[in-house]
């Protein structure tokens, strides 16, 4: 029988260049030369009789035919990688490798991990570096926790965990005295602290509670939720954050909910798992535990 499929090195070169948008970055990722990537893709294009990439400035972007081919062969490449890695390393089904968004990792997951280990002592967790542009296909990673909406890649099952509830926070002292915060409009008289990556959070919250306002200008902005919280504690102003990320500080009394009128975001943190892999009981145990933690009342969560 004649074999029509190309070689695996050619497919890996193609898939990696498609993911990174660069032949040179693909070469670095696969530990080969850029020339090797170019030649492999040229052979593949010649074999298929189609152009897989087009140049746009310094980037190599998929043609329509290239995108269709990647969608068709990508899952198979990932399956072969996963099966081969499992055989080579003889990984136990009780070992899990996760990739977790850093903010949720530090503020929500780490305080709860002792409970997971107590309930599932036979499951060993390890953590892969976080990549913002991760395509959620690495065969050595069993599950990801990522912030997103509903537009997940094909072949990914996503369970919402936490993070949609947006609340304003302040110092406990800001709720006392003649100038106390009592209503949403009172926040407009305070310095507003912004999250650098989500500058529309304040406008979204004010709209959600029906509070009219003029242009909203930050008195300062911070890239990390932890820095926002520290700025609030220091008295620099008030901030609006995802409630799940500040439960320990709320429970300890270091900050307070300024106005207890939460507004829902359309994004949140999700557990993402590939659907095309063999069932892993440890992944299911992790999923059940995470959903249980996410569904607990806030006061119970921080005690876990």
Radius of gyration from the alpha-carbon trace, in angstroms: 24 Å
The number of helical elements comes to 12
Q: Tell me the fraction of residues in β-strands, as a range.
A: 15-25%
Shape: elongated
Spell out the helices and strands N to C: HHHEEHEHHEEEEHEHEHEHEEEHH
Largest sheet: 6 strands, mixed
Low-confidence stretches: 299-304
Overall pLDDT metric: 89
Count the E strands. 13
| N- and C-termini, Cα separation | 60 Å
Helix content: 40-55%
- Going by helix content, strand content and strand pairing, the class is alpha/beta
Any overview of this molecule?
This protein is of the alpha/beta class and 304 residues long. It is 41% helix and 20% strand. It contains 12 helices and 13 strands. Strands 7, 8, 9, 10, 11 and 12 form a 6-stranded mixed beta sheet that branches. A 5-stranded mixed beta sheet has the order 4-3-5-13-6. It has a two-stranded antiparallel sheet with strand order 1-2. Strand 8 (192-195), helix 8 (201-209) and strand 9 form a beta-alpha-beta unit. The model is unreliable at 299-304 (pLDDT under 50).
């Amino acid at each position: 029988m004649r074999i029509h499929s190309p070689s695996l090195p050619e497919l890996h070169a193609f898939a990696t260049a498609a993911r990174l948008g660069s032949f040179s970055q693909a070469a670095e990722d696969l530990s080969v030369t850029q020339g090797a990537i170019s030649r492999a893709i040229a052979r593949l294009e010649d074999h298929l009789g189609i152009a897989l990439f087009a140049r746009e400035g310094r980037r190599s972007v998929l043609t329509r035919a290239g995108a269709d081919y990647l969608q068709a062969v990508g899952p198979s490449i990932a399956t072969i990688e996963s099966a081969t890695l499992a055989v080579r390393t003889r990984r136990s089904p009780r070992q899990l490798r996760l990739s977790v968004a850093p903010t949720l990792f530090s503020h929500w997951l780490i305080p709860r991990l002792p409970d997971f280990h107590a309930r599932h002592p036979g499951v060993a967790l390890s953590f892969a570096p976080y990549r913002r542009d991760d395509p959620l296909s690495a065969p050595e990673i069993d599950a990801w926790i990522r912030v997103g909406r509903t537009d997940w890649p094909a072949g990914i099952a996503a369970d919402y965990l936490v993070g949609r509830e947006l609340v304003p926070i302040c110092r406990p002292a800001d709720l006392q005295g003649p100038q106390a915060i009592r209503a949403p409009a009172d926040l407009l008289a305070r310095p507003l602290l912004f999250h650098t990556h989500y500058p529309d959070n304040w406008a979204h919250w004010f709209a959600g509670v029906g509070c009219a306002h003029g242009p909203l200008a930050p008195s300062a902005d911070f890239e990390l939720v932890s820095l926002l919280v520290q700025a609030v504690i220091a008295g620099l102003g008030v901030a609006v954050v995802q409630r799940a990320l500040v439960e320990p500080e709320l429970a300890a009394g270091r900050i307070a909910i300024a106005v207890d009128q939460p507004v829902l975001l359309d994004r949140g943190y999700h557990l993402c798992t590939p659907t095309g892999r063999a069932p892993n009981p440890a992944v299911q145990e992790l999923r059940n535990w995470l959903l249980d933690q996410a569904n607990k009342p806030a006061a119970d969560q921080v005690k876990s």
